[in-house]
């Protein structure tokens, strides 16, 4: 019976031992890398929350003079709306939010004062409108709770989009308005992933005229939005 040469056996044994050692060392490194990746993803998710709430919509009345010298009074009916928020908090003083809001209300325009040239003025116009908010802003959560509640405040900029309804919008076209806003309030986690929130918001923007120069006041208005809701913390 022939035998395997000793040098070949030694080389085979050394090769097997080296391969086993390499596999043994590589396994913890791969596991650590996967764990690190998972932890980084978890840390990012823990900074995000998704909120849904209801808000009251109360808009300041404005008055002005249109191009024909008539007085124009613009008031908006009070109503309730919905607000969806996505927030990202990196640290107590560094964070941001994206907001989407919706409400339906009526814009009422009243014009007074006679003019000597045609066309004759419209004394009153009422337009039912869908309003959409799309805003992006800065958000901070001071590190010291108040009576067990976490305070927050922030502000930003975005768009209000007015869309007159097909039935009650008087055939007026859609119109957008740039808006600044600020917000402040308190929130509290009830469970590790569910919390409640109350806040006060105020928006500043140019009063819409729906591109009708006889409805133009040329003045800015504000909308205040007290609200409350809940949020999911990832």
How does this structure look, described?
By secondary structure, the protein is α+β, with helices and mostly antiparallel strands. The chain folds into 2 domains: 1-45; 47-233, Porin (Beta Barrel). Helix content is 17%, strand content 56%. The protein contains 1 helix and 10 strands, in the order H-E-E-E-E-E-E-E-E-E-E. The protein has one helix at residues 6-45, and strands spanning 48-59, 62-65, 71-76, 79-91, 94-112, 124-140, 150-164, 175-191, 194-206, 220-233. An 8-stranded antiparallel β-barrel has the order 1-4-5-6-7-8-9-10. Strand 2 and strand 3 form a beta hairpin. The radius of gyration is 31 Å and the shape is elongated.
SSE order and pairing:
Elements: H1 6-45, E1 48-59, E2 62-65, E3 71-76, E4 79-91, E5 94-112, E6 124-140, E7 150-164, E8 175-191, E9 194-206, E10 220-233
Strand arrangement, largest sheet?
A: 1-4-5-6-7-8-9-10
What is the CATH architecture term of the largest domain? Beta Barrel
CA gyration radius, whole angstroms: 31 Å
* CATH fold category name of the largest domain: Porin
| Largest sheet properties | 8 strands, antiparallel, barrel
**First-last Cα distance:** 70 Å
Q: Average pLDDT value? A: 86
Task: Name the overall outline.
Answer: elongated
* Count of helical regions: 1
Query: pLDDT below 50 for ≥5 consecutive residues: which ranges?
Result: 1-10, 20-36
The percentage helix is 10-25%
Number of strands: 10
Helix/strand/pairing category? alpha+beta
Strand percent estimate: over 45%
Order of helices and strands: HEEEEEEEEEE
- Top CATH class of the largest domain: Mainly Beta
Count the domains.
2
């Amino acid at each position: 019976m022939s035998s395997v040469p000793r040098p070949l056996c030694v080389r085979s044994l050394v090769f097997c031992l080296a391969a086993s050692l390499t596999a043994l060392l590589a396994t913890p490194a791969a596991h650590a890398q996967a764990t690190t990746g998972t932890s980084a993803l978890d840390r990012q998710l823990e900074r995000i929350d998704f909120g849904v709430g209801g808000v009251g919509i109360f808009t300041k009345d404005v008055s002005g003079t249109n191009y024909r010298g008539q007085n124009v009074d613009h008031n908006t009916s009070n109503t309730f709306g919905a607000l969806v928020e996505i927030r990202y908090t990196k640290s107590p003083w560094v964070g941001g939010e994206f907001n989407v809001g919706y409400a339906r209300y009526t814009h009422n325009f009243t014009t007074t004062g006679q003019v000597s040239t045609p066309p004759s003025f419209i004394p009153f116009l009422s337009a039912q409108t869908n309003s959409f908010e799309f805003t992006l802003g800065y958000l901070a959560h001071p590190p010291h709770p108040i009576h067990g509640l976490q305070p927050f405040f922030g502000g930003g900029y975005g768009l209000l989009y007015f869309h007159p309804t097909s039935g009650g919008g008087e055939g007026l076209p859609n119109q957008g308005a740039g808006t600044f806003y600020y917000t402040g309030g308190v929130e509290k986690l009830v469970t590790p992933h569910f919390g409640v929130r109350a806040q006060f918001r105020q928006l500043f923007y140019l009063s819409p005229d729906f591109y009708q120069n006889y409805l133009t006041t040329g003045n800015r208005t504000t909308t205040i939005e007290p609200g409350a809701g809940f949020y999911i913390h990832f």
